[in-house]
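Section 5.1 Outputs to date
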Amino acid sequence: MTSKIRIGTVGLGLMGSSIATCILAAGHAVTSLIKEIDTADEARERILGYLRQLTQEGLLIDTPETIIERLTITDDVSLLSNHTVVIESITENIDEKKSLYQRLETVLSPTAIIGSNTSAIPVSVLQSGLKHPERLLGIHWAEPAHITRFMEVICGKDSDLTYAYEIVALAESWGKEPSLLKKDIRGFITNRIMYAMLRESFNLVENGYATIEDVDRSLRNDLGYWITFAGPFRFMDLTGIPAYLTVMKDLFPDLSNNTKSPKLMEDLVASGAKGYRMRRVFILTRPNRLKCGKRNSSTSAMTSGNSPKNIYPLPSKRPNDTHSIYKGHRSNCTG
């Protein structure tokens, strides 16, 4: 399956467009199914922009204008009928995803693989009710999908492992370094570990042990130092295994096991903060007190009703700006 087959995608939002870009850059033709055809031009321009950024990095042989010609955008599901792989990246809603899969099953071959870019929904839940649940897999990408090596391929309880191996091989031909989960579990690998870290981060802040800035600073300067070249097991190999067992025995009983979402997070979301992408971010006016404000487009400061004494540091550019994403990174989707 590593030949340049035509691949189907569903959804061309930010992640869906990035996935399509990766597959196009790897040399495949792509058919993308969208709900509203009047958004096709916007999606095509976004993908063309991603391809041009890859060209600026010297990662493409063909011109973006040539590559984009291999992209077909449609709202007609029947155009996916001859595809052997279709990757869905729509809203994280179980009912909407399952409704889509049922539509796909009306036109796809029984052996065509359906991949879901779900980040947390158990694949076994998505398989329920399908005619051919064995061909549904989780294919979890990281954003931006056309840059990162990350991918998780997840089997549900009814998945045929043969299909999973086919997707792993295909992803490797795109320059990915996929991880295979042979058993289904909510959150997969990275999200389970990341949210355990987030829970403990909130625990430290909400109970007054450290400020938001201090937690960010410590993780950035410790975890951020080694995580790019070693996962947790390799890092323990490199730094001495026995000491970790000693710490585990003492520390594990003291870590947060709270099953409720943090009040700090609940309050922040209720205040209207949505993060940098929507130009709505939070500022720290004093310890454990957050205030929502709008970012001033001309400076890195923020405007709000008051003039806070301590402003949480903001980057000079939004994280989605071209240079902040691409500088120093190389695409792994150029086949």
